[in-house]
TrEMBL record:
This is DUF1963 domain-containing protein. It comes from Kitasatospora aburaviensis. It comes from the Bacteria.
Length: 299
């Protein structure tokens, strides 16, 4: 990590207007990936992994990678590093045992039936890796460049999030949509003019790469995720994003980036990742055991 990013305070303290939201607050850590030259000993997006030389590199063994792909390739495909996060940098991570590094990889092709890249998670203990793989295999083909992240350093920043409007009960959602509800101390004119939009865009969930927090629903209504082994409700682990801000979310732009041309796509997407072109891929894990399979969802 060699940069700092600071999210501005929210335009209004939403819990001052709606105290019933306070118990629904969740911590999240924005990662703020920015172009850099991370090493295997750093937290990163798209950077080199602390991968032991004596451990096989993961491959996707789907029989064919297509037909939705721009390129057709038969046979295994080397998986691509997506993120490496050290617990020292991202303390929200619940590491199993003595592990202190989370590594995320994916196949650089969208797979049916959900048309998303299959992901693999690995936990390891950094001190146990003495010989690091210097030249991991590269995929023989990729569906498009958006599935090969540009190497980025990260600047983890802890924030507080509140639920997507779709995660709220009907009564509270109706209150958020009412102009009169916002005519209270602490509410500003923007909230009064477009209360529901202001809550969804500026006061609830942060856009971009993050650990924890609330799910960014939009493509679908909320979908409960349950562990296929024990049935426990699964928890959001990591949001992999196609942009850190968009035209409706400039209030989330860190102070350090506000002088940039914010509407240029590459500025808002330093890793140049595109999930199904412009969406998010959210990874969920079982809170009962890290050995249980994770799952993912595009939103």
């Amino acid at each position: 990590m060699n940069h700092i990013r600071t999210t501005p305070p929210r335009p209004v303290d939403v819990t001052a207007v709606f105290p019933q939201l306070a118990p629904l607050a969740r911590p999240a850590i924005r990662l703020h990936p920015r172009p850099g030259a991370p090493s295997p000993h750093d937290s990163s997006v798209g950077g080199p992994l602390l991968w032991p030389t004596d451990e096989p590199w993961p491959h996707c063994h789907d029989e064919s990678h297509g037909p939705v792909a721009d390129e057709w390739h038969e046979g295994p495909i080397a998986m691509v590093p997506v993120a490496q996060l050290y617990v020292r940098d991202v303390p929200l991570l619940r590491a199993p045992g003595q592990a202190d590094v989370l590594q995320v990889l994916w196949c650089p092709f969208e797979h049916e039936p959900d048309y998303k890249p299959p992901t693999a998670l690995f936990w390891r203990t950094a001190a146990e890796v003495t010989d690091v793989l210097a030249a991991p295999p590269e995929p023989a083909a990729v569906e498009y460049d958006g599935y090969e992240p540009e190497p980025c350093t990260v600047a983890p920043e802890r924030i507080t999030e509140y639920p997507n409007p779709l995660d709220l009960d009907r009564e509270l959602r109706q209150q958020l949509e009412g102009v009169r509800s916002w005519q209270a101390p602490g509410a500003d004119d923007v909230c009064a003019l477009a209360p529901n939009d202001s809550y969804g865009n500026d006061l609830s969930m942060a856009p971009g790469w993050k650990v924890g927090g609330w799910p960014p629903w939009g493509l679908t209504d909320p979908i409960a995720r349950f562990c296929t082994v024990c049935g426990a409700g699964m928890s959001p682990l990591l949001t992999i994003a196609s942009h850190e801000w968009d035209g409706s979310g400039h209030s989330w732009v860190p102070y350090e980036d506000q002088s940039l041309p914010l509407d240029k796509p590459d500025v808002a997407n330093p890793p140049r990742v595109h999930i199904s072109r412009t969406n998010n891929l959210q990874l969920y894990v079982c809170p009962e055991s890290p050995d249980h399979p994770h799952t993912s969802l595009i939103q």
